[in-house]
Design goal:
single chain; 4 helices; 69 residues
Length: 69
């Protein structure tokens, strides 16, 4: 899943078509709302979509704000 997100981010940075990148994603890393990420036209919009509107954002939040003892 993370590899597919990285592919979309780097593709967006290089101004590639996100629909084309979505077809190149690995099938095991695709999640239900991933096609909605193709709406992003720049990195800021993609950041908002990935880290705020998907489960990946909550995972990062829990990892960063819940220290492991």
């Amino acid at each position: 899943m993370i590899d597919n997100i990285i592919l979309l981010i780097t593709g967006t940075l290089h101004e590639r078509d996100t629909h084309e990148l979505l077809q190149r994603c690995h099938p095991l890393g695709i999640f239900d709302t991933m096609p909605a990420l193709c709406v992003a036209t720049n990195v800021e919009e993609l950041y908002q979509s990935v880290l705020v509107e998907t489960a990946l954002g909550m995972s990062f939040f829990l990892l960063l704000y819940n220290p492991v003892y």
